[in-house]
Write a structure and sequence with these properties.
Elements lengths: L2 E3 L2 E3 L1 E5 L10 E4 L6 E4 L15 E5 L1 H65 L6 H9 L11 H10 L24 E3 L1 E3 L6 E3 L7 E4 L3 E2 L6 E6 L10 E5 L5 E5 L9 E6 L6 E7 L8 E4 L60 E3 L1 E3 L6 E3 L7 E4 L3 E2 L6 E7 L9 E5 L5 E5 L9 E7 L6 E7 L8 E4 L16 H4 L6 H4 L1 H7 L1 H7 L23 E6 L1 H4 L1 E5 L5 E5 L5 H9 L2 E6 L5 H5 L2 H6 L8 E5 L2 H5 L22 H15 L4 E5 L4 H6 L1 H9 L5 E4 L1 H9 L2 H5 L1 E2 L2 E2 L1 H21 L18
């Protein structure tokens, strides 16, 4: 419509006139037939002719419009001519300036070339005369610090690169950078090592596609950056990669290689602290001979020197000197059994190689080894004397015994000649669980032997220091001598580092610094990084639904799902976020998929940023068919067969189909029967084949927590009370917090889950 501006009314230009269109008052149109313009006197209805003077008035004649347009074009032409003339003048000026500058530069270049020719002639003339300045530097570069003369500069450089030419005392880190540490690699076809959980798997979708090293390869380079030269494809499902393991061959973490090419390529990878072994997978038989690993670091730590990892073959004789290694100068050679590892000794675990034999026990009263005949697999004892030179130290022991007065479990102490000193009975308020006993190790103790009760607990015996200081009782006689500390290799500053570490433990935990290899070493009292997930879906059985066991009037027991006491709802209240509880007693993977819980989970209205799945105990109770990983059809989950693998995979696939960026955490069961039946192994393997699926291995790291002490006392009828489910919430959140800090790059865009946005 026409616009009112101040005291003026501005007509509206309405294009070419159309008899089938109505027009507002003061609308200007063009009559295409005559070329003349008209303006409406009043609102014009549809079907009104342009010649109807009641509605239309001529606004401008065609000839007047043409004349005005011609004048405007002539003015424009004049302006263009003036612009072109000006541009041509400027261009001529610039060309002349450039020509002048080029001539000047040419003269200077000719002068410099003449100078270079003279210098080159002088170098060629002097190259065979050691007294000339130009040749003197080259001749000098052929000689090392000790006067050894090499045939050429190149041979000297190659000697340094191979380690043969490293100078005495020169190990300060810079010479070890890019040192070739490639171990002997023996490859087996159609196998691969899972980067997710470190297991060995078969590859059946083709032959000679992937190759793996089956053996655990010694690799004591924890804490170092590496340059790994290997090959993998660019597809997400590629199986190639490297896996790291600790001294007990337990999986620590894994990494893929360079994904930018299918050919051999370098990738800089961090070797986790505590690494003792590796295993590798590589794509393509033609690539195997080229695989290699180099140190890409600027320091040497004690971890690099164990088991002769740095030998005379790699370094010049006596090249490792104390002053070069001062920062890491307290080694196991100086201390007894690693008892003092530059740490404050409070709650320091004492390393013991405990080997238990069934149907034997150590008599606490006399210390002798005896046979237990009333039953089998009741008691287990250490036949060997375990070195324990910690007389006078206060210690904490975790062990098991029954409450019977005739129980024979206990600990015995022996002197240097293996003569019995005294014995100790464990604290035990409830039989058949792990308990803790603090004691003072008798003076003069050099060895111990112990007895454990119950087969399922025998492997969890441990001893820690309880002292808050490093006392001489923990240090072997003459282990730290004046000669060893004269060069300040052991200083007060170094011994106080761990104290400072303890003071900053809270900050380190928040920032993910100095993470332990054990995700459940220290249980949190909050939800940690779980707080960042605004919506979480919990899929599980009665242990996820908060089921509580009660006694009926007739003395039998029943179970009731109390969702408000489930571990998921504890986390919901702690974080203030929404947790959907798609769980109930007796639930299995197959019954979940056919239930109303699954209908709500997958309806698209309850999408979550994270999902936690804990299913398998009821499958074990019913001996449900496990199947194999091949039951998971990655291209079409509707083809998955009705097995534990197939149904578990289908749950994950349906979640990822609905919410592709979701983070999914899958739990193993801490019960030994579930582990022995193979359901936990299936969960570990499933975690390794999907992207954004993370293993929460409660059996490997949490069995002792679930089967001993305070948490065990909260259990009844195979389920927990309110306190027990709260502790379960803390265990699960602690583990997931650890996963997120161990894999920071995979959790950088949680805020974009469910959105199309991304940054990386």
């Amino acid at each position: 419509m026409s616009k009112f501006i101040g005291r003026r009314i501005v007509p509206k230009h309405d294009g070419v006139w159309d008899i089938n269109k109505e027009y507002e008052e003061l609308s200007i149109v063009l009559d295409k037939a005559s070329g003349e313009s008209y303006i409406s006197r009043r609102p014009v209805p549809v079907g009104t002719a342009i010649s109807d003077e009641i509605y239309w008035m001529q606004y401008s004649l065609y000839s007047a419009q043409i004349a005005e347009a011609v004048k405007e074009m002539e003015d424009t032409e004049a302006r263009l001519i003036q612009y072109v003339d000006t541009a041509e003048s400027n261009m001529n000026s610039r060309v002349n300036s450039a020509e002048s500058l080029t001539n000047s530069n040419k003269a200077e270049l000719n002068s410099r070339m003449d100078t270079l020719d003279k210098r080159l002639d002088a170098n060629v003339s002097a190259s065979t005369d050691k007294d000339k300045d130009y040749a003197a530097e080259v001749v000098d570069a052929r000689v090392d610090e000790e006067g050894t003369k090499y045939g050429s500069v190149g041979s000297h450089i190659r000697a340094i690169g191979s380690g043969k030419g490293i100078l005495k005392g020169a190990v300060n880190g810079s010479r070890l950078s890019f040192l070739d540490i490639t171990p002997e690699l023996v490859w087996t076809a159609d196998k691969y090592i899972s980067r997710k959980y470190g297991g060995l798997d078969n590859f059946s979708q083709g032959s000679n596609v992937y190759f793996a090293t089956l053996d655990y390869i010694p690799f004591p380079y924890g804490g170092c950056w590496l340059q790994v030269y290997s090959a993998m494809s660019t597809v997400e499902s590629d199986k190639s990669g490297i896996a790291f393991y600790d001294a007990n061959k337990k999986f620590i973490s894994g990494s893929d290689y360079n994904r930018e090419t299918k050919k051999l390529a370098f990738r800089r990878i961090f070797c986790p602290d505590g690494t003792a072994y590796i295993r590798m997978s590589c794509m393509g038989q033609d690539n195997l001979n080229g695989v290699g690993i180099w140190l890409d670091d600027y320091r040497i730590s004690v971890g690099h020197l164990v088991d002769r990892a740095v030998t005379h073959e790699k370094l010049a004789e006596k090249s490792v000197e104390t002053d070069n290694l001062a920062d890491e100068a307290i080694t196991s050679e100086k201390l007894c059994d690693n008892a003092v590892q530059v740490k404050n000794a409070a709650f320091l675990e004492i390393p013991l190689e405990i080997v238990l034999t069934p149907d034997l026990y150590i008599a606490r009263a006399k210390g002798d080894l005896r046979t237990y005949t009333p039953g089998t697999n009741t008691y287990f004892a250490t036949e060997d004397y375990l070195p324990f030179p910690y007389g006078g130290s206060k210690c904490l022991l975790r062990a098991s015994m029954s409450t019977a007065s005739t129980d024979v479990s206990g600990l015995a102490f022996y002197d240097q000649d293996k003569k019995y000193i005294s014995g100790l009975k464990y604290n035990q308020e409830k039989g058949g669980i792990l308990s803790y006993t603090d004691f003072i190790c008798p003076k003069g103790t050099a060895y111990i032997r112990l007895t454990m009760y119950k087969e399922n607990l025998k492997d969890f015996a441990k001893i820690w220091f309880m002292d808050t200081v490093v006392s001489t009782g923990k240090v072997q006689d003459a282990a730290i001598t004046t000669q060893k500390i004269a060069d300040e290799a052991i200083t007060k500053d170094k011994l106080e580092k761990d104290i400072q570490k303890r003071l900053t433990a809270g900050i380190n935990d928040l920032l993910g610094l100095n993470l332990s290899d054990n995700p459940l070493e220290r249980i949190r009292n909050d939800a940690g990084l779980m707080t960042v997930f605004r919506h979480v879906g919990c899929i599980g059985d009665s242990l996820a639904s908060g089921e509580a066991v009660y006694k009926k009037a007739d003395g039998t027991t029943g179970g009731k799902d109390l969702f408000e006491y489930s571990w998921g709802q504890y986390l919901a209240r702690m974080t203030g976020n929404t947790y959907y509880n798609w769980s109930k007693g007796g639930l299995r993977c197959d019954t979940f998929l056919s239930s109303s819980l699954a209908t709500e989970c997958f309806d698209g209205n309850h999408k979550c940023e994270a999902y936690i799945i804990g299913l398998g105990q009821n499958e074990n109770n019913r001996k449900y068919k496990i199947g194999t990983v091949e039951d998971i059809n990655l291209g079409d989950y509707t083809q998955n067969p009705d097995t534990y693998y197939g149904n578990y995979g289908k749950i994950i696939q349906k979640i990822q189909e609905m919410q592709p960026k979701a983070k999914i955490f899958i739990l193993t069961d801490p019960l030994k029967s579930v582990e022995n039946a193979g359901y936990n192994s299936a969960v570990r393997e499933i975690a390794g084949i999907f992207k954004s699926v993370y293993l929460v291995d409660l059996y490997t790291y949490g069995t002792a927590l679930y089967n001993s002490g305070f948490l065990y006392q909260q259990k009844r009828g195979g389920h927990y009370n309110a306190v027990g489910y709260f502790i379960c919430a803390m265990i699960i959140s602690t583990y997931i917090d650890w996963i997120m800090k161990k894999n920071p790059n995979e959790f950088r865009e949680i805020e974009f889950i469910g959105l199309d946005n991304k940054f990386y």
